[in-house]
Structures are given as structure tokens and as C-alpha cells.
Amino acid sequence: MIRLIAALASALLLSGCFFLGGGGGASYSGYVQRAGMYLSSTDVDNSCISPKLRSVIASFERKFGNKIVVNSGYRDPIRNIIGGGEDSSYHMRCMAVDFFIPGVNKGQLIAFAMRNEQVGGLGCYPGRNFIHVDVRDRPRGWKKPVTFSGC
Questions:
Q1: Which terminus of the chain, N or C, has fewer Cβ atoms within 10 Å?
Q2: Please, are residues 133 and 99 in contact by the beta-carbon 8 Å criterion?
């Protein structure tokens, strides 16, 4: 019996159908999964994410026990214009993502980002369910991220 349970648990883990994270059983049905990440649509490009940004993403996933869902990742210059991004957008440098975590209040994400020393920039977008984080260098002496867009 124990071997059967162990075999089933291994099969679930290897198939990617089971996420060890708890956090209230968030639902990821309807999201695209690519390269180990959940994306809000097939248009989201997560092909280029810097190692430092991956570390920030992992810190949110550890804190809240669930995977993030990326609304916007890498943007080429044309996609950046269409998306209304700034000319110097960190999305074009593989250093920013807009995301949410199913079942986690946006205010909790903002509060964690404000305490997270790895987060260089934070956008909060009133009326939207996601936040923006980037890994820019903070200005000298800053203890919190550079904030914009409603934070």
C-alpha cells in the first residue's frame, strides 16, 4: 500500500499536475503553462527572464505558496509601444514582469514587494488585479523599491 501511494505521488509530481505549495488550492485552469511558468495568455512572452528576476519570482512563490501568473513579461519595442510601456521599460530588458497570484490579495503582494530587497521597481495599477516588479538598481540609499502607477 505504501509503495502504491509513493508511486502515485511520484507520477503526479513528474507529470506537473501537482504543485507542492499549499496556499489555499489556487486554480490555474485556463492559464497557459510554458517553461515552468503560468501565463495569462499565449501572447505573453516569458522566453527572456533574467536570473535576478527569476529569483524575485521565486521569492513571491515561496512566500505565498503558489505560482505566479504572468500578465506581461518580455516585450520587444513594438509590443512595448502597443502595451503603452515607457521607452526605457524594463520589460524590454528581460528585467520586469506584471503578475498576480490566484487567491492572493493584491495588497499582500504589494506589501511583500515593499519589504523585498530584491525588488527594484514596483507598479500597483489601481483597478487591476496585478502588480509590476522589476529588478532595476535602487537609487543610492533607498530602502524601498522605486514606486509608480498608484503605489
A1: N
A2: yes
